[in-house]
């Protein structure tokens, strides 16, 4: 809305008042249907988050960032305790990218009585138990619970339109929260933000900083495998998933966790019969691998051959 410092709220009451006031200002200024965009984060923000804020700023009258380190997403308590908290720097970055309001609640405010609470949690179902969920049991249940709470807290009053922004980089999370909004009839538009790649093709990730030059080179096997599948799809050829896996495995000391081709909305793997035929509709290739000393994920949408 303005070039001013983003306004900080740490309680549900305060942030609801801020949102209602801003929406009222927009309506009074002659905007009958204001748009409000939410960028949910766990803080420790960096310029890699910029694409989320840029798209939210371009598409909305009011931009909200949530900053909350969600304990329900962590497998190990020590990982939660050691997660960086950089609120002052986060506020500066949100302001720089045009955010208007920052909601940064404490754990005891979001989950009164934690760790015994919340008693009622949102299940991600089978979609949350495969791929990344298989190695991190309960992770996506934690994601769904906190995202549902954030939507309920930050949803603006009518007639404002509410949107929530998620990166395509975490394709499984994007599919799960999209399905949650549909299944639970939550009045929010899910807005995917395209995955950003380095000129080399490597998907941008905060984990990349832990790779040396040799590791960076080996990590390119993930994106090369995905591009190989994407090229097959656009040429109308059989999707040779075994050959794609071999591209990743050919990198020295790289351990492939999974490489699968799935339906983008259900995360159901394509059948052997579907893989043996030209792609009929958009699919999603998912890959995860250990590139010492980090585990990397990547994905790519596969488009079928264009028809005249």
From TrEMBL:
Keywords on record: ATP-binding, Cytoplasm, Ligase, Nucleotide-binding, Pantothenate biosynthesis
Localization: Cytoplasm
Catalytic activity: (R)-pantoate + beta-alanine + ATP = (R)-pantothenate + AMP + diphosphate + H(+)
Assembly mode: Homodimer.
Biological process (GO), any one: pantothenate biosynthetic process
Enzyme Commission number(s) of this protein: 6.3.2.1
Binding residues for ATP: 42-49, 167-170, 196, 204-207
UniProt xrefs under Gene3D superfamilies: HUPs (3.40.50.620), Pantoate-beta-alanine ligase, C-terminal domain (3.30.1300.10)
Residues at which (R)-pantoate binds: 73, 173
GO molecular function terms listed in the Swiss-Prot or TrEMBL record: ATP binding; pantoate-beta-alanine ligase activity
Protein name per UniProt: Pantothenate synthetase
Binding site for beta-alanine: 73
Signal peptide: none
One Pfam family cited in the UniProt record for this chain: Pantoate_ligase
Gene Ontology cellular component terms for the protein in this record: cytosol
Stored NCBIfam families: panC
Family statement drawn from the similarity comment of this UniProt entry: Belongs to the pantothenate synthetase family.
Pathway annotation: Cofactor biosynthesis; (R)-pantothenate biosynthesis; (R)-pantothenate from (R)-pantoate and beta-alanine: step 1/1
Provenance organism: Enteractinococcus helveticum
Function: Catalyzes the condensation of pantoate with beta-alanine in an ATP-dependent reaction via a pantoyl-adenylate intermediate.
